[in-house]
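ingest -> validate -> predict -> emit
validate: passed (alphabet ok, no gaps, 142 aa)
predict: started
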Amino acid sequence: MFSSAIIRKMDVYLSKEAWQGLEAEALEPLRRKASGLLLGHRRGGRFYVERIHPVPFASFPSAERYMMLDRIFMGTIIGFYFSGRRIESVAKKLPPFSTNKLCLEFERHSKRGWVFKPAVVEYTNSFQLVPVTLARRPKRKK
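emit:
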């Protein structure tokens, strides 16, 4: 288990492939709420999101479905993403397997561009979402 102090020092890096996957999800009609799995690994104080896998679920998959998906992806599920809903509403129904996982709320706004709200699920007498930062992407070489 991580403490809140440790989690607050963590950040999230989105690979090019993960970024493209989220962009593609954002193109879907607004009436559809996007959701899915964040796949990657955790090293030191950083979550590395290598890719995403869209999975339509209302808030979180059932424990049975989560375990099946985790076997398929060989233990690389590091979190969940949601678009079109607020992470706080999702947090009210956190299952035990979400502890120490990343939850990423994202939306694309016409004026503000991309808005990401990453948080790590922590449990201390109750489930809490502890906000973390999104790591800057390196500048592209021209």
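The chain has a mean pLDDT of 82.
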